[in-house]
Design a protein that fits this description.
This protein is an alpha+beta fold. It has 5 helices and 8 strands, in the order E-E-H-H-H-E-E-E-H-E-H-E-E. Helix 1 crosses helix 3.
């Protein structure tokens, strides 16, 4: 499968691959990831490789989109992820993002998400995007509103006891 790379002013991103395992290991074990997304119990580089192979690559192969590794152009540093996900319990495709702590609050999540929304609507023919977040994650809620999403309702998704906030964005 040909890996497509997308660019913004300060970033580029492409589908996460096995060679991103060390970065994914670091990202999945940040306190913010664990608090806001959940502990994926990935504790080794091999575990991260397995997570990529089991959770990310099959969706990419099946649907043409999945998790993307976000890389800063200025130094080629892997700084976060931004992706489109088909999740159980959600009617529409879900937009998700996460960044290493030192790269948060610098506009990178907005920049990469805005580009991914454009791609979803113009290239992937997606007409409605969902986004979910915890009630405590005010930063993500604010970012979703800034991106044009609106709060729809509180939901629960399969295999998760926590009530989540569901946001929606409809293609114009």
């Amino acid at each position: 499968m040909k890996v497509k790379k997308y660019k913004t002013e300060r970033l580029y991103f492409r589908p996460t691959q096995i060679e991103d395992a060390a970065f994914i290991l670091e990202l999945l074990n940040t306190p913010q990831w664990i608090a806001n997304i959940g502990d994926r119990n990935v504790k080794t580089n091999e575990g991260a490789e397995d997570y990529i192979v089991r959770k990310m690559l099959p969706q990419l192969k099946k649907l043409g989109y999945s998790n993307n590794t976000v890389i800063r152009k200025s130094d080629n540093k892997k700084i976060g992820s931004c992706g489109l996900y088909k999740r159980d319990g959600l009617e529409n495709v879900d937009l998700g993002f996460a960044f290493l702590p030192e790269y948060q609050k610098k506009g990178y999540a907005f920049e990469s998400s805005e580009k991914l929304i454009e791609i979803a609507f113009s290239e992937l023919n997606i007409t409605i995007l969902n986004a979910i977040t915890t009630k405590e994650n005010i930063a993500s809620q604010n970012l979703l509103v800034k991106l044009g999403f609106y709060f729809s309702k509180n939901i629960k998704i399969p295999n998760d006891a926590e009530t989540l906030m569901l946001y929606e964005l409809v293609s114009s």
